[in-house]
Amino acid sequence: MPELPEVEVVRLGLAPAVDGATVADVVVLDERSLRRHGAPAADFVGQLAGARLLAPRRRGKFLWVPLDGDEAPTEALLVHLGMSGQVLLRSADAPDERHTRIRIDLDHPEHGRLRVHFADQRRFGSMSVDPLVAARDAPGDAAETLPAQAAHIARDPIDPRFDAAAFLAALRRRRTAVKRALLDQSLVSGIGNIYADEALWAARLHGEQPADSLSCPAAARLLAEVRAVLARALAEGGTSFDAQYLNVNGQAGYFAHRLNAYGRQGLPCPRCGTPIVREEFMNRGSHRCPRCQRVR
DNA sequence: ATACACGCCTGCTGGC
DNA sequence: TGCCAGCAGGCGTGTA
């Protein structure tokens, strides 16, 4: 499922194709993939048609492409992949993918005509054109803007301006399970179920341990492991279990081979050999080693 | 402020 | 072989 590493892989792949390109044509095949767009498809098409695109940006799992304006950009094409969304770069006359919902043709000054498919089997993802607003966590920097729909999203742990000390303090004030806190995108963004389980395994913490009971070293260790697992996954091109996550060229990532806990119920913990267990938590699966990861 | 259920969606899997 | 329940889960919304 696309979490930070997967979305970042998409951003990196998209950048050379969209930066400086002009929107030549937009076709909305399924209006349900515009759920985040607060107006009919014709409005979405009208706002994009002829627009010049800038380099894509990302915060957490949100990806956006600012539309060039006379001065600073005020609008962006916002993309959220949801559970199964893909952004695929294809040649100009490429046929639709099986789950293409929106098709955007671009003219790039160097690469010529390109076709971008937004494909989404389960339609939890969405595109929209969203106004850019000042980032509340960038005081004094009017240049840092966010799509309005992502304004509540906290910085992610690999953002250069992520405030680790503030995060650790906020985490240790949360009177909730530490895994719930990791998944709260308004506290820290980009972490989903897979990398939460992996970071908790690496830090030897039980996801249901109250966040406000974490020692300072334990919280710091958890953040370090979150960063490490996100970085490793990014270096491997993300986690692909099946065709639900692919990069812009339709290729799978390799990090699924490196998972230590997620989806490994019944298999030995790579650290101690005890079988990994799968438990229900927050209406989803949680995977942990019952020996290494206990509530303290 | 915080916590929880729910709806959104399709395709795959396992049991009968 | 066919059918259907169960499962995968990010995020916004509604309710308590």
Radius of gyration: 20 Å
Low-confidence stretches: none
Assembly form of the protein: single chain
Percent of residues in helical segments?
10-25%
H/E element sequence: HEHEEEEEEEEHHHHEE
Given the C-alpha coordinates, what overall shape results? globular
Please state the average pLDDT score: 91
How large is the count of helical segments? 6
Give the strand content: 15-25%
Strand order of the largest sheet: 2-3-4-8-9
Based on secondary structure, the structural category is: alpha+beta
Largest sheet: 5 strands, antiparallel
N-end to C-end Cα span: 30 Å
The count of β-strands is: 11
Brief description of this entry?
With 296 residues, the chain is of the alpha+beta class. It has helices at residues 4-18, 41-48, 164-171, 178-183, 193-202, 216-235, and strands spanning 22-28, 57-59, 62-67, 75-80, 85-91, 100-108, 112-120, 126-134, 145-147, 277-281, 284-288. Strands 2-3-4-8-9 form a five-stranded antiparallel sheet. A four-stranded antiparallel sheet has the order 1-6-7-5, with helices on one face.
Question: Care to describe what's here?
Answer:
With 296 residues, the chain is of the alpha+beta class. Helices cover 23% and strands 23% of the residues. It has 6 helices and 11 strands. The strands form 3 sheets. Strands 2-3-4-8-9 form a 5-stranded antiparallel sheet. A hairpin with a 2-residue loop joins strand 2 (57-59) and strand 3. The longest helix has 20 residues, at 216-235. It is globular, with a radius of gyration of 20 Å. The two termini are 30 Å apart. The mean pLDDT is 91. The protein binds a DNA duplex (16 and 16 nucleotides) through residues 1-3, 32, 35, 61, 80-84, 99, 120-125, 175-176, 180, 183, 185, 192-193, 241-242, 244, 282-285.
